[in-house]
Write a structure and sequence with these properties.
With 373 residues, the protein is of the alpha+beta class. 24% of the residues lie in helices and 35% in strands.
């Protein structure tokens, strides 16, 4: 009889415990953004089922973090994002119910603290379902953006964080401007980033202490691969700059707003006159070509200012450049496949190194005067 009573008591106790547990999970599943301990600084990852916000202090350095933690429904995987002194952090972690295993650590800084942050997320047990509440608001906002996109896709140039220093590359679908600081030397860059619609390829241009930089980078959704680095200087910082471009998500599309005006201007550019050029030509254009322009260019190492006449054919696959350098007439003939310049002739042997940059500038300024035959 005593055993039976004890069994009934234990059963009742277990039932009550389970009911309490179910109640907690039910409450957690219906939490809203207002129930979170702090405002999220990062959007939850929509590849997961639920998210929460964790306030966490790295005690050794008294650094306070506000972390967005996205999770699978069964807590088998977590995606954590936070900002640490200006650097965006991300970790992806699997969990077998006993041990956390950090699979990815974007900066290499957060792996040590991630388990404690995730444990706190599990312990506080305040989860907002992704797709409900605030997330539903995000979905509605996305729908509204989609509707707006029927009229204008992306943003207009005035919404960008800074004025571009380089023209966007029209071989791509969209572009943005990223302000970035190389922390070790406190160098501030303003980068023009052009991208494919699916973010699979990026073309980055910026100026670093007078040197024009360019990188071309492919992206598989997890890893960046720098395919080209014009000066060999920017490969290390390119991934962080592209991360920032994706995070700020302010893209101007080439078929919208300011860019449509740019395209119109480019069309008009073909009918430009000598009066539209930035300087008076010092050399007559080459009549074997279709159009020409004038480029003002400085060889920075020696502070030599050149005024170059650049003649080209209609499809810009070949260029004929002439200028004068300290009394010597210079000439280069260059072919172009849309990606790379190949200097075929260099009259003095002096100009091959600077010719690509001069031709880049000619294409960017896009002021072409028809050559009269």
């Amino acid at each position: 009889m005593k055993k039976k009573v004890l069994a009934l008591v234990l059963a009742a106790s277990m039932a009550a415990s389970m009911a309490a547990t179910v109640s907690v999970f039910a409450e957690a599943a219906t939490a809203t953004e207002a129930d979170l301990p702090a405002e999220a600084q990062f959007e939850p990852n929509k590849d997961y089922d639920k998210y929460t916000v964790v306030e966490y202090t790295i005690e050794d350095i008294q650094a306070d973090l506000v972390c967005t933690v996205s999770a699978k429904e069964d807590n088998s995987e977590f995606y954590l994002e936070c900002n640490f002194y200006g650097d965006d952090q991300m970790t992806r972690t699997t969990y077998d119910g006993k041990e956390f295993k950090v699979e990815e650590d974007k900066t290499g800084f957060m792996a040590g603290d991630t388990p404690a942050i995730l444990q706190k997320a599990i312990d506080q047990n305040v989860w907002v379902a992704i797709g409900d509440g605030a997330a539903a608001d995000d979905a509605a906002a996305d729908d509204a953006k989609a509707d707006d996109a029927k009229e204008i896709k992306g943003v207009t140039e005035d919404k960008l964080p800074a004025e571009p220093q380089f023209e966007a590359n029209k071989d791509y679908d969209k572009w943005t401007v990223v302000e970035y600081t190389i922390e070790d030397i406190q160098a501030d860059l303003v980068c023009t980033v052009s991208a494919k619609e699916d973010d699979s390829e990026f073309y980055l241009e910026c100026n670093f202490y007078g040197d024009d930089q360019m990188t071309k980078t492919t992206y598989d959704g997890k890893e960046y691969k720098v395919e080209e680095d014009k000066t060999g200087f920017m490969a290390g910082d390119t991934p962080a700059i592209l991360d920032k471009a994706l995070e700020q998500d302010l893209w101007v599309y080439f078929d919208n707003g300011a860019d449509a005006a740019d395209d119109a201007a480019a069309t008009d550019g073909a009918a430009a006159t000598a009066a539209d050029l930035p300087a008076e030509a010092q050399f007559e254009p080459n009549k074997d070509y279709d159009e020409y322009t004038v480029v003002e260019y400085t060889i920075e190492d020696i502070q030599a200012d050149l005024v170059c006449t650049v003649s080209t054919n209609k499809d810009h696959t070949e260029f004929y450049l002439e200028c004068n350098f300290y009394g010597d007439d210079q000439m280069t003939k260059t072919t172009y496949d849309g990606k790379e310049y190949k200097v075929e002739e260099d009259k003095t042997g002096f100009m091959a190194g600077d010719t690509p940059a001069i031709l880049d500038k000619a294409i960017e300024q896009n002021i072409w005067v028809p050559i009269e035959k």
